[in-house]
Design a protein that fits this description.
The chain is 32% helix and 21% strand. The protein is an alpha+beta fold and 277 residues long. The strands form three sheets. Strands 8-9-12-11-10 form a five-stranded antiparallel sheet. It has a four-stranded mixed sheet with strand order 1-7-6-5. Strands 2-3-4 form a three-stranded mixed sheet. It is globular.
């Protein structure tokens, strides 16, 4: 048996280099990390991630959850054609399926489960492919939730308040973003051809991060970009607040509907061209 001491980790080496004694609080560790950054041991991005890790244990589900009003859900009794169109518009991989309202979550629909019924949708009952929902309280620590997500191979939980009502939802991505920053998927690339996607001849799905210059070039509009750079920023400016899913606004020749948003930013917009009466 090898009784030799294990090799000290990166944080231990930092402590031994920049502090005479082991730190006793997270604040002391933070000071050591900032000292190391100032001496060019690592870059600013690394410092930010380390500071995020130090702050992570204090975070709860309520700090990162998507609120009830911003949840994208599917109603169990909606026609399948409408459900599929909604999935295309919002581009999620998982949806809570509800009964009468959002307090009645019946299950979680994974969109990949619909693929096995391709070209035979007449044989599909949504109830057959629903997965059991996981419920967590608002005050649950993110540390505990991350551990449960990993152990249960789960990626979504419904957040409930003290009375058992639905107050929002939380995903694995929401949990880890406080550490690594915003996670962008394949729908978030900065290519204008992908940012504006025609759903039909008169309907377009547009990423909120699309630059206003690209919007003007594509739709022939003349939106100003001296105060904001993106179309999402322009909408927030016009609304005067961060709108939630389903809110609509007309700016010039275009009608905008918020298709996807969370508590921090807009994600996806549906756009149609206004026709004069």
């Amino acid at each position: 048996m090898d009784d030799s001491p294990s090799k000290p980790g990166f944080l231990e080496r930092l402590v031994s280099r920049f502090a005479g004694d082991a730190p006793e609080t997270a604040e002391e560790v933070g000071k050591i990390l900032r000292n190391a950054y100032e001496q060019h041991v690592f870059d600013a991005d690394t410092l930010q991630r380390m500071e995020n890790i130090l702050a992570f244990p204090a975070l709860e589900v309520r700090d990162v959850m998507i609120t009830r009003s911003q949840m994208d859900v599917i109603k169990i009794n909606e026609p399948l054609e409408k459900i599929i169109a909604y999935i295309v518009d919002t581009s999620h991989s998982r949806f809570p399926v509800i009964g009468e309202d959002k307090d009645q979550v019946l299950g979680i629909l994974h969109t990949k489960d619909l693929l096995k019924y391709w070209n035979r949708t007449d044989q599909l009952q949504i109830e057959q492919v629903l997965r059991e929902p996981v419920f967590v309280p608002e005050g649950k620590s993110l540390n505990s939730l991350m551990k449960e997500f990993r152990e249960q191979h789960n990626h979504m939980a419904i957040v409930v308040d003290e009375y058992g009502g639905t107050s929002g939802l939380v995903t694995f991505e929401d949990v880890i973003e406080p550490i690594v920053g915003d996670i962008e998927d394949e729908f978030d690339e900065d290519d204008s051809a992908d940012n504006i996607f025609p759903v039909s001849a008169e309907r377009f799905r547009v990423k909120a991060t699309t630059e206003i210059g690209d919007i003007n070039a594509f739709f022939g509009t003349h939106y100003p970009d001296d105060e904001v750079d993106t179309i999402g920023g322009l909408l927030i400016q016009e609304f005067g607040y961060l709108p939630v899913r389903g809110e609509k606004i007309t700016i010039g020749k275009l009608n905008f509907t918020v298709a996807q948003a969370d508590a921090r930013r807009l994600h996806t917009l549906m756009v149609t061209i206004k026709h004069d009466d």
